[in-house]
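Memo to structure team: turn this sequence into structure tokens by end of day. - J.P.
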Amino acid sequence: MAGPDSGPDIGMEEGGDPACWAHRFDDGPELPALVVERAESQGSAGKRWLDDLPGVVDAMVQRWGLTLGAMHEGGTAGYVVDAVGPDGRLAVLKIPMALDEDDHTAVTHSVVAHELAAGRGCAELFAHDPAAPALLLERLGPNLDTLGLPVDDVLETVATTLRTFWRPVPDDVDLPTGATKAAWLARLIWATWDELDRPCDRAIVDRAVALCAARARAFDPSTAVLVHGDAHGWNLLSADRPDGSGGSAGYKFVDPEGLRSEPAHDLSVLLREYNEPLLAGDTPTLVRARAERVASWCDVDPDAVCEWGAIERVSTGLAALRHLGGADGEGHAMLEVARRCL
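Reply from structure team:
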């Protein structure tokens, strides 16, 4: 979901309104207001990250011989800035806001996903520093959701790009499995629903949790592949040369979570997002039609897409409400689609 819990869109357009830069360090980088707000909401760990950031950025600039350019405003999960390497290669420097062990583990899994993809269907990872942590990535163009395409075109582009991203994961690679993620989502759904004083019918939560158990049982390591985990239009960027030269290279993903799961897991995000058309008519029929459409593009079981979609819709809808409360229309839309599909 492109929203308060999303990572930075590392290939967003250059520039931005300086009025959005709420925090300027002495001899250090600017930061968007939402990044500062998130860091400050995390207490001493967030303050320490803000205080340490100028030194981390300077160390990466020196280590990789970078010249920094425009800061990116998208997302809340770190500092992202255009960079040029000593050889003139266009890049993006990303400093994730990793405040605890879970955050560092998530960064590690994302790095593994980048390394396995090796630039195929995903931004190429040029270098990384696990201690910082910091990533130097291929610079891409605008994201798909800013191009004004019809929803069906967005769905097809995401689905077909996923086919270039999916690949077997070697047995010795340490990534969470679809079964592990399903169990984690079940716990998240229950905890968030209770924390928010039960903002939707219990039947919605019961069904989502039951489907988590079903997808965990269905996990098959022999057919699992590398999945992105958050494959939607905001995380899919144009792979045309950012300087406008060269021919079209299609699209590539950014911000992979990095999971070993079934392809239906990735396609389910397309059922979670873009809810306005689903609410404009017979919602259960429209949801099923979308599942069958995206599944057909990738030769995947539509039933599995529907089940993962129901899980993602409830877990992300509740997470959105937790971050933005009643002001988050998309979170409410996800839960309304879930209610209609009972």
